[in-house]
Specification:
Layout: H1 16-25, H2 30-42, H3 44-52, H4 54-81, E1 95-99, H5 104-114, E2 119-124, E3 142-146, H6 152-166, E4 171-174, H7 189-217, E5 220-225, H8 238-259, E6 267-274, H9 292-305, E7 309-313, H10 329-338, H11 354-363
Helix pairs in contact: 2-3, 2-4, 5-9, 6-7, 7-8
Length: 383
């Protein structure tokens, strides 16, 4: 499953991202536009053409300015988010932990890493579901560790097992996620706790287990898979959006903390905020969807670069999603209300975490594990 280059046509077809990339590599590419500008200013023939086509020359100067500003912005993004520090990753030695790596986006992330021979520990409540691959026949670089991400004790036990098998991991990809798809009054305590335990609190407990070694070596990476929902809350997914907003805040906070308080400026932090993706968890959600392969490739590309990054997919989301809160209130509130229909046909599947099911069974005086709501059966790793 080779990773597609940015010059390849997206799986989703021709999108606004396709047009944006084309403009970036042509009209807004200083490598192409600056020579034209210099020719127009310092050659006789170029000067004549510029005089004859004054409006076009004006647009050329604007394109040069915008292209240079864009490249400068990208350079500053890279320099500041990486604390003006370089680091080297040896993929024969790195150990990657992927939560929710048995299915959905996480499954594809693990496959892409495994194809490169990178050692991967999959933490999931489900066993591996890869085509032609299970826990017995998985590649030698991949191992599965059962974990209940709603339980801190289970997380610590799984992390100890990973360290015993691989040594201290250098990259943590917090990918597992869940959604219940209910309005506030229909949401039970179990629904709310499950959503926050998996989507947010597990990030803290996992980082506490793996960060000390990263800090000691001033080397490592923490990847947070959030969502557009971190910026934009809609009806019938308040708990999901709130948990993803908290995950985004976790990423932003840990990015600053490792560089200052924890004195490990070479530790990288990556966040992926993706829009609606074609996974089982959000089946029936309204809106144009990304393919999970597209999101997984974006995550793996960032990991392989060994650089901090703040990613939105589709990229056109930068034009609206983070800027939403700067809009007038009537526009913000009006937009959220208009998005009520997005969850009207949602029928996402999930696999419930054992600890919360057992608590519910005990509370109800039942023996064994409680029943699973078929309309909401959690599949970890799918956003």
């Amino acid at each position: 499953m080779p990773i597609r280059s940015e010059y390849s046509l997206a799986r989703e077809g021709v999108t606004l991202d396709t047009i944006g990339r084309a403009l970036k590599h042509t009209v807004l590419n200083p490598v192409l536009t600056i020579p034209l500008l210099l020719a127009a200013r310092y050659t006789q023939q170029g000067g004549q053409l510029a005089a004859q086509h004054a409006p076009a020359f004006k647009y050329l100067k604007a394109a040069v300015a915008l292209g240079v500003l864009q490249r400068l912005g990208l350079w500053l993004d890279d320099a500041v988010t990486n604390n003006f520090e370089n680091d080297t990753y040896d993929w024969n030695k790195e150990v990657v932990v992927v939560t929710g790596g048995s299915d959905g986006i996480g499954k594809i992330v693990v496959q892409l890493l495994a194809e490169r021979g990178i050692k991967v520990a999959v933490l999931d409540v489900q066993e591996l579901t890869y085509d032609g691959m299970d826990t017995v026949f998985a590649p030698p670089s991949v191992r599965y560790f059962n974990v209940d991400l709603a339980s801190r004790d289970s997380i610590i036990e799984a992390c100890d097992a990973v360290k015993a098998a691989f040594g201290n991991p250098t990259i943590l990809i917090n990918n597992a996620g869940c959604a219940r798809g209910k309005n506030l009054l229909d949401s039970t305590e179990k629904d709310i706790r499950l959503t926050f335990n998996v989507n947010t609190l597990s990030h803290y407990f996992l980082a506490q287990q793996f960060l000390p070694s990263m800090i000691k070596n001033n080397h490592g990476m923490i990847v947070t898979v959030a969502s557009f929902a971190a910026y934009l809350t809609t009806p019938n997914m308040i708990d999901y959006a709130s948990s993803k907003a908290a995950a985004l805040a976790f990423h932003e906070g840990i990015s600053a903390e490792v560089a200052t308080v924890l004195k490990a400026p070479k530790i990288r932090t990556v966040v992926m905020c993706q829009g609606y993706t074609r996974t089982k968890l959000f089946e029936g959600f309204g809106g144009r969807a990304l393919y999970p392969e597209t999101v997984a490739e974006g995550i793996v590309k960032a990991v392989l670069k060994g650089k901090s990054a703040h990613l939105l997919l589709p990229e056109v989301g930068w034009l609206l999603v983070p800027l939403l809160r700067t809009l007038p209130l009537w526009m913000q509130y009006g937009l959220r209300k208009r998005l009520e229909s997005l969850m009207s046909n949602w029928r996402g599947r999930q696999v419930v975490q054992p600890s919360l099911e057992q608590k519910e069974a005990v509370a109800q005086g039942e023996n064994g594990v409680g029943k699973v709501d078929e309309s909401a059966v959690l599949v970890p790793g799918e956003q």
